[in-house]
Amino acid sequence: MSINVRFPAYRTRRLRQNEAFRQLIRETTLTVNDLIYPLFVRHGRDLRNPISSMPGQFQFSVDQLLKEAREAHGLGIKAILLFGIPEAKDEVGSEGYHRDGIIQRALKSLKDALPELLIVTDVCLCEYTSHGHCGVVKGGYVDNDATLELLARMALSHAEAGADMVAPSDMMDGRVAAIRESLDANGFVTTPIMSYAAKYASSFYGPFREAAESAPAFGDRRTHQMDPGNALESLREVYLDVTEGADIVMVKPALPYLDIITRIRLEFSVPIAAYNVSGEYSMVKAAAERDWIDGDKVMMECLLSIKRAGADLIITYFAKEAAGILRES
Q: Does residue 53 sit within a domain?
């Protein structure tokens, strides 16, 4: 039995019939230039401590960090994002802004060895405080305004040690303005700020808490990170950060918030970064280890989706693996 169906003159499958056609009309392309590689550094020597919940990721001592950074740079990765694990913690996270802190040491070593590598530093107190919260705690509550001075001190200490860009992740109100004022007043007018502008109170951060040893000792971070149900609020957050002086704005996490990336892309002309966070990474790795998925293909599809949603930059633990695949393609 034949079915008489009239097709329109335009058939969409014509341009899908082989890879050459598909490449010619591809709307979104992922390149190694889109990737920023997050790394964890701690005190010690010859340390490469595996992070159990993030297969393939490590806490590095500075000497091992240099090796990892060189390898990443050799793959074409232009930038890394540094997180520090201090030797000791206290109520106000003082190692975070100490001139001889772990990030400050790592910056000096990296800049001596790889001056062409762009180094972004995370600016937040949670890794450095004994209570694990992102700021000064008073009466069980994170005091916004008391935290701003410490964040500004931390950002300035990073710039002085050689950071190319600082990235405040704390979500305190007014922290971009405080950091911008401090940097400018001390001669770092050309140091950009990449703000974690729309950072959600997400359950996808679990493996990171192990990696950075930054789990809160009590409570949670919902008083300052965004509610996952809110979308319009992300536009207000981005607007405030841009008016305070942010050069790049970030959405975190990436995959559960692709709609937020797109909304921001449609409303603002500033560069947008998206953080493909630890939970997103670990889920892919866990499924791939069980042969439930093709890990490489799923990885590349995830990264492409973030770019397609509107992100200009992708912070991802997959950076080295993705760079290797992109290099071969």
A: yes
Number of independent structural domains in the chain: 1
Residue type, 171: M
CATH of the domain at 222: 3.20.20.70
Residues involved in catalysis: 199, 252
In a domain, 81, yes or no: yes
- Run of H or E including 301: helix 295-309
Q: For residue 220, tell me if it sits in a domain.
A: yes
pLDDT interval class at 328 (50, 70, 90): confident
Q: Considering the domain boundaries, does residue 156 fall inside one?
A: yes
Q: What global pTM score does this model have?
A: 0.95
Question: How many angstroms separate the Cα of 66 from the Cα of each of 39, 61, 117, 171?
Answer: 11, 9, 11, 30
Rounded average pLDDT over 215-241: 92
Q: Cα(10)–Cα(256) distance, rounded to whole angstroms?
A: 35
Residues forming beta bridges with residue 39, ordered by sequence position: 82
**pLDDT band for position 215 (50/70/90)?**
confident
Specify whether the CB–CB gap between 238 and 249 falls below 8 A. Answer: yes
Is the Cβ–Cβ distance between 278 and 254 less than 8 Å? no
Angle at 254 between CA 272 and CA 23, to 5 degrees: 75
Q: Which domain holds residue 225?
A: 31-248
99 pLDDT more than 80: yes
Alpha-carbon distance of 90 to 138, in angstroms, equals 14
